[in-house]
Amino acid sequence: MNAAEIRSYIREVPDFPRPGVSFKDITPLIEDGSAFHAAVDLLARATDDLDYERILSAEARGFVFGTALAYRSRKGLILARKPNKLPRETVAATYQLEYGEDALHIHADSVTPGTRVLVVDDLLATGGTARAMCQLVENAGGKVAGVAVLIELAFLNGRKTLEPYHVVSILSYDAGE
């Protein structure tokens, strides 16, 4: 299955979660075993040449692709969680929301100095979440090997927010798509 076929499983939900937003619903994709498998395979092929030891994904939809890619690539998985969700000492990074800010945390011992980490998420919009995940890696002394996403909303310029990191996406949407 190629990227165009995988794209056919992404459902567009207009005006969700608010007017003017066209939400990209991945649930039809992950509900179809063959399509989900193909999407993870494409992510794996797109990141095969990257040198990394672990994958970092953020809750909740990022966990879906991060876990599957970690399993397929036989790499460890680090979970980035919202505040007060992890039981031990954490490292945090904040990022901006439309009306305020939020934070992501990882366990302080999840990344040791020099560990090469691939950041994986379902979608790249403005880049705020992925940038915070990159900061988590660096705050813990690790190196960002790259950022991999299934869907990129290219018109929101998230890739620019993530410079100088290497970014790969499987599906790219322009404004109005």
TrEMBL record:
<keyword id="KW-0660">Purine salvage</keyword>
<keyword id="KW-0963">Cytoplasm</keyword>
<dbReference type="GO" id="GO:0003999">
    <property type="term" value="F:adenine phosphoribosyltransferase activity"/>
</dbReference>
<dbReference type="GO" id="GO:0002055">
    <property type="term" value="F:adenine binding"/>
</dbReference>
<dbReference type="InterPro" id="IPR029057">
    <property type="entry name" value="PRTase-like"/>
</dbReference>
<keyword id="KW-0808">Transferase</keyword>
<dbReference type="Pfam" id="PF00156">
    <property type="entry name" value="Pribosyltran"/>
</dbReference>
<dbReference type="GO" id="GO:0006168">
    <property type="term" value="P:adenine salvage"/>
</dbReference>
<dbReference type="InterPro" id="IPR005764">
    <property type="entry name" value="Ade_phspho_trans"/>
</dbReference>
<dbReference type="InterPro" id="IPR000836">
    <property type="entry name" value="PRTase_dom"/>
</dbReference>
<comment type="pathway">
    <text>Purine metabolism; AMP biosynthesis via salvage pathway; AMP from adenine: step 1/1.</text>
</comment>
<dbReference type="GO" id="GO:0006166">
    <property type="term" value="P:purine ribonucleoside salvage"/>
</dbReference>
<comment type="similarity">
    <text>Belongs to the purine/pyrimidine phosphoribosyltransferase family.</text>
</comment>
<dbReference type="GO" id="GO:0005737">
    <property type="term" value="C:cytoplasm"/>
</dbReference>
<feature type="domain" description="Phosphoribosyltransferase">
    <location>
        <begin position="55"/>
        <end position="167"/>
    </location>
</feature>
<protein>
    <recommendedName>
        <fullName>Adenine phosphoribosyltransferase</fullName>
        <ecNumber>2.4.2.7</ecNumber>
    </recommendedName>
</protein>
<dbReference type="GO" id="GO:0016208">
    <property type="term" value="F:AMP binding"/>
</dbReference>
<keyword id="KW-0328">Glycosyltransferase</keyword>
<dbReference type="GO" id="GO:0044209">
    <property type="term" value="P:AMP salvage"/>
</dbReference>
<dbReference type="InterPro" id="IPR050054">
    <property type="entry name" value="UPRTase/APRTase"/>
</dbReference>
<comment type="function">
    <text>Catalyzes a salvage reaction resulting in the formation of AMP, that is energically less costly than de novo synthesis.</text>
</comment>
<comment type="subunit">
    <text>Homodimer.</text>
</comment>
